[in-house]
Specification:
The protein has 395 residues and is mostly helical. It has eleven helices and eleven strands. Helix content is 45%, strand content 8%. The mean pLDDT is 96. One of its GO terms (molecular function) is alpha,alpha-trehalase activity. Belongs to the glycosyl hydrolase 37 family.
């Protein structure tokens, strides 16, 4: 369905041309917040399947525009490391301080616990910024995991967002070369190298062998030249997002891997003992807060990003773990489908065949990314005839 894929991408390109970024959804009230930046990955996948250079040429200016959006002052955060080197990373930051139109009553009810109008507006700003992340909602973004009014997403430098922007910079460098713009290609290769160093300097934790979200000071004051890095500002709680940079192993150009084989092995060992690997897939977090992006929910894109990264990490053991995650995920999707006649938005990773719950709306069926990830896993690993599809069987 190459034409369909191209047209979906071109719809998103139109949004970037019109609004400067990919809207959180194709409705007028989403013009104040973005989606996580994965448009360049979509363009790359279409190009990989079709070899259509004209399509790349058409999308290319919009990718530059989207990158500028993420590099703008509201998103860019300078942090000075312990050696005095300043690194630039990105954060989510919606341009909105009112209840979300699609969830206004929910937001107003939450804000009713707060007295001042200014503080209500701050909360609405944090809610919209969290919606921009895709992880809406999770204890990951809260100062107090039991209290939604403590959302503080704009004070966090997220691991996954910077992973996606690094990938975007690498993609743009490759596309620029393809369309004959060598100066832009060099510029974005340089930018991607700088972000790689920034991610490893500010977000990597060598004790935990994970990348960790970084909390900015609560007063929001940025000293001249950037925030000063502090080790206790890394969020040491375990989330599936701490392992998302592994995904970049699946997309490295030439011999340059984001995490070399030795580092990838340490990250894999950390994942194995993290508590996130469950009977039916990877949990989003270790804390059950009843939020939908917390335990025990597992989500298709998270399984896919991490499994893809493991698959290309350079070891037999990592490939086996990737296949094991894929097997558990396909089984639970299949069992839930047989029981309900539908694919689900999210799944409970503690029990094979059980769909997920929690959050602020009724769990949805359908469902695009669940369908896509199952198809991708089946295409990648197959399903041999002797392999049992039922839940109770071993891998």
């Amino acid at each position: 369905m190459y034409d369909t894929a191209k047209d979906i991408v071109l719809n998103l390109v139109y949004m970037v041309e019109t609004y400067g970024f990919v809207l959180n959804g194709a409705r007028s009230y989403y013009t104040n917040r973005s989606q996580p930046p994965l448009l360049s990955s979509m363009v790359l996948d279409v190009y990989g399947a079709t070899g259509d250079v004209e399509f790349v040429r058409k999308a290319f200016p919009s990718l530059l525009k989207e990158h500028s959006f993420w590099m703008s002052e509201v998103h860019n955060v300078p942090v000075r490391d312990k050696h005095g080197q300043v690194h630039n990373l990105s954060r989510y930051q919606a341009r909105w301080n009112k209840p979300r139109p699609e969830s206004a009553t929910i937001d107003e009810e939450l804000a009713s616990k707060i007295n001042s109008t200014a503080d209500k507006e701050k909360l609405y700003h944090q809610i919209a910024s969290t919606a921009e992340s895709g992880w809406d909602f999770s204890s990951r973004w809260m100062r107090n995991s039991t209290d939604m009014t403590t959302l503080a997403t704009t004070y966090i430098i997220p691991v996954d967002l910077n992973t996606f922007i690094f990938k975007m910079e690498q993609d743009i460098a490759a596309f620029a070369k393809l369309v004959g713009d060598n100066a832009t290609s060099e510029k974005f290769l340089k930018a991607s190298k700088a972000r790689h160093i920034a991610i490893d300097s500010i977000l990597w934790n060598s004790e935990m062998d994970q990348w960790l979200d970084y909390w900015l000071p609560a007063d929001g004051n940025c000293q001249q030249g950037g925030y000063q890095w502090r080790s206790d500002s890394q969020n040491r709680k375990i989330f599936a997002s701490n392992f998302i940079p592994l995904w970049l192993n699946a997309h490295h150009s030439g011999s340059m891997q984001f995490a070399d084989a030795a580092k990838s092995k340490r990250v894999m060992a950390s994942l194995q003992k993290s508590g996130l690997l469950c009977a039916a897939g990877i949990a989003t977090s270790l804390t059950n807060t009843t939020q939908q992006w917390d335990f025990p929910n597992g989500w298709a894109p998270v399984q896919h990003l991490i499994a893809e990264g493991l698959l290309h990490s350079g070891s037999e053991e990592a490939m086996k773990l990737a296949e094991d995650i894929a097997t558990r995920w396909v089984r639970t999707n299949y069992a839930a489908y047989k029981a309900t006649g539908a694919m689900h938005e999210k799944y409970d990773v503690e029990a094979c065949g059980k769909s997920g719950g929690g959050g602020e709306y009724k769990p949805q069926t359908g469902f695009g990314w669940s369908n896509g990830v199952v198809l991708s896993f089946l295409e990648e690993f197959g399903w041999p005839e002797h392999k049992e599809i039922g839940c109770s069987q071993g891998a």
